[in-house]
Design goal:
The complex is a heterodimer. By secondary structure, chain A is an alpha+beta fold. Chain A is built from ten helices and seven strands. In chain A, the strands form three sheets. A three-stranded antiparallel β-sheet of chain A has the order 3-4-5. In chain A, helix 2 crosses helix 3 and helix 3 crosses helix 5. In chain B, helix 1 runs antiparallel to helix 10, helix 3 packs parallel to helix 10 and helix 12 packs across helix 15. The longest helix of chain B has 21 residues. Classes of the chains: A alpha+beta, B alpha/beta.
């Protein structure tokens, strides 16, 4: 009798990850696996992209980080993204979603910048055939990295009025504190939760947001003072 | 993709049921199917089998058979111990008679315990039923016995420290801690605190004699030692009272009601016997493979060993690689036929990285890049070679794709 644990069938193992911490499993779609195992358009020769428009999002402390490089040309009066290269630190869905985004952007002669600005994580997910629910928020960051790179293009091409600032996300619902407020406080020297609370009282009325605040604190500390 | 030779290196998560264990269990499904509480012959036969298994298990623990309570596994045994002791009226009354009516019991545990110990204790703390001290560990994941002693108070009712860590493999100095608690109790002429240990990862590798380890309660399960899932036990030293979690027909001395899992109990006894019989030989065989694997993996740049270098389970290798994320690495390894696990947040349902690796003072960045290989009976030199052929390429490939290039200082907490 063959032993299913020592010698499981290839079919049974396909794409399922069993986690050590909680023993939960999930399946990635074939499209996710395709983009994870054979990623498209990731940056090979950084030297040729020195002049490209650069966008960044995430941090390694949070578990996901990505950079994208764009080349944009104006053809018949339409600004098109002709090239999209990327590098991603993160799990399979982070890598696959960035890879899929690069395909979506560069197919059909390059996506117009106006259309690219409207891309949402759901659009990438749809093309991937879905992702495990709890993976969406943390790993589909490609649209943000893309907008960051398009802003870089706007700045470098002198179109400052077109730079789009991300709207702040409400973190503390009681005190109406956004992630931008936390970033400001970190820039002003709040490097611990205690100091952050002294400054902006975050979490004192709504302690349930503290884990989120601690994560943001780590992220902004690294962004501004770390690597 | 090339044809797969499979290397299962996740024995800390689950082990296959040994053929001899399965064989011992089989009659108890359909032939000796009686309820041990019944008075007819098939019931009595089942009852005798359970008694016999209990006796053999007790002798391996150097305990009495009435001190063994069968449960559904490690998590239930941990819950029975850490919820049951602080909720027992006689203990609360004794503390209150001595220290005042307002006294709540104090419990000591460590930051590297399994969730099965930490979560019920945090639950009791939240409800105001206990005062809780969670001890820090050192860089190797060790809980120092002197730190336990320093944390002891007049109202300390329970100390729970695991025997060996499931993630990083560190073997805790349980006998020293047990001895220190014994002398603390003796000096003060008090029966408290009781000392509990979760020994689930240790059964195949360490001596679990409760007299040598000086523990009062011990958790064990079958599924980590080539036995079936869904069966475990709690050893409870004679005379120690505790409140049950499951109340009903009064089986297991009223401490765990419910019809006995007869095939499971038979399987647990057989698995435990086999594990202890091969303990020394298997430990020395795996130690050689473990050290060869760890040594070679650490030649990959920007890598660090998690856990203790020598005081560690013979089957555990846990290495963090900077600039890569564990779940992605696990999937690339899986595609090459290697089954391992990670402490990365991306692979946990809480989306938090391993609390154990963070507790040892490693950074979030390093915890996200941790990979655990746990060897077992089927593991050979070829499996180690297989990992060593594949892993450097996986790390290189992911680093090539990664925008992150951290300095070595990022291994340590900032």
């Amino acid at each position: 009798m063959s032993d299913p644990i020592i010698k499981p069938t290839h079919e049974a193992r396909k794409g399922d990850v069993v986690t050590p911490a909680k023993g939960k499993g999930w399946f990635y779609t074939d499209m996710v696996k395709e983009h994870f195992f054979s990623p498209k358009n990731f940056l090979e020769d950084e030297a040729s992209y020195k002049q490209a428009y650069l966008g960044m999002v995430g941090s390694p402390a949070c578990g996901d980080a990505m950079k994208v490089w764009l080349k944009i040309e104006t053809i018949d009066g339409v600004e098109r993204i002709k090239d999209f290269k990327w590098k991603t630190f993160g799990c399979a869905s982070a890598i696959a979603s960035t890879s899929m985004l690069s395909v979506m952007i560069t197919e059909d002669g390059g996506m117009p910048v106006e259309d690219a600005l409207k891309l949402r994580p759901q659009d990438i997910m749809e093309r991937l055939g879905g992702l495990p629910a709890r993976k969406v928020h943390c790993s589909v960051l490609g649209d943000k990295a893309l907008r960051s790179a398009i802003n870089d293009y706007f700045r470098k091409s002198g179109q400052h009025d077109r730079v789009e600032v991300e709207h702040g996300r409400l973190v503390d619902k009681v005190l109406k504190i956004t992630d931008h407020d936390i970033e400001e406080a970190v820039l002003e020297g709040a490097d611990t939760l205690e100091k952050l609370q002294e400054k902006i009282k975050v979490g004192t009325g709504d302690p349930s947001c503290i884990p989120d605040v601690e994560q943001l604190l780590r992220f902004y500390k690294e962004k501004h003072f770390g690597a | 993709m090339k044809s797969l030779s499979l290397s299962y290196l996740d024995h800390a998560a689950a082990t296959p049921v040994d053929a001899r264990v399965l064989e011992a269990m089989l009659p108890y499904f359909s032939s000796v199917y009686g309820n041990p509480s019944s008075f007819h012959s098939v019931g009595i036969e089942a009852k005798r089998a359970v008694q016999e298994a209990r006796k053999r298990i007790a002798s391996l623990l150097n305990a009495q058979e009435e001190n063994i309570i069968f449960t559904s596994g490690g998590t239930e045994s941990d819950s029975l111990a850490v919820l049951g002791i602080p909720r027992t009226k006689v203990h609360l009354d004794a503390l209150r008679a001595k220290l005042g009516e307002e006294t709540i019991p104090h419990v000591i545990t460590s930051s590297v315990e399994h969730h099965a110990v930490l979560e019920p204790l945090l639950f009791l703390k939240k409800r105001g039923e206990i005062e809780l001290t969670v001890l820090d560990v050192d860089r190797q994941g060790m809980v120092a016995p002197q730190d336990v002693v320093k944390a002891l108070k007049e109202n300390t009712l329970l100390v729970s420290i695991m025997m060996a860590n499931n993630e990083i493999g560190t073997i805790e100095p349980i006998a020293d801690t047990g001895r220190a608690i014994l002398s603390w109790r003796k000096e003060r002429e008090t029966p408290y605190p009781f000392f509990h240990t979760d020994a689930c990862q240790a059964a195949g590798y360490l001596d679990l004699d409760v007299e040598k380890t000086h523990v009062d309660l011990l958790t064990l399960n079958a599924s980590k030692m080539y036995g079936p899932k869904g069966i475990g036990l709690l050893y409870i030293r004679k005379g120690i009272r505790l409140a049950p979690l499951i109340i009903g027909g009064g089986q297991e001395r009223n401490l765990r009601s419910g019809t006995e899992n007869v095939p499971g109990i038979i399987g647990l006894a057989k698995a435990f016997e086999l594990a202890q019989a091969s303990r020394e030989e298997e430990s020395s065989r795996l130690t050689v493979l473990r050290d060869a694997l760890a040594e070679e993996l650490l030649t990959i740049p920007k890598s660090v060993l998690n856990g203790h270098t020598t005081k560690r389970l013979p089957n555990n290798v846990n290495v963090s690689f900077l600039d890569i994320e564990g779940e992605a690495a696990i999937l690339y390894l899986d595609a090459e036929g290697i089954m391992a696990s990670t402490g990365s947040a991306c692979a946990s349902s809480s989306l938090n990285p391993s609390h154990v690796i963070l507790a040892t003072g490693l950074s979030y960045e390093a915890a996200h890049g941790s990979i655990r290989f746990t060897l077992g009976r089927s593991t050979t030199k070829e499996d180690v070679q297989h990992v060593l052929q594949v892993m450097p390429g996986v790390v290189e490939r992911l680093r090539h794709m990664s925008p992150v290039n951290l300095d070595m200082k990022y291994f340590e907490k900032q």
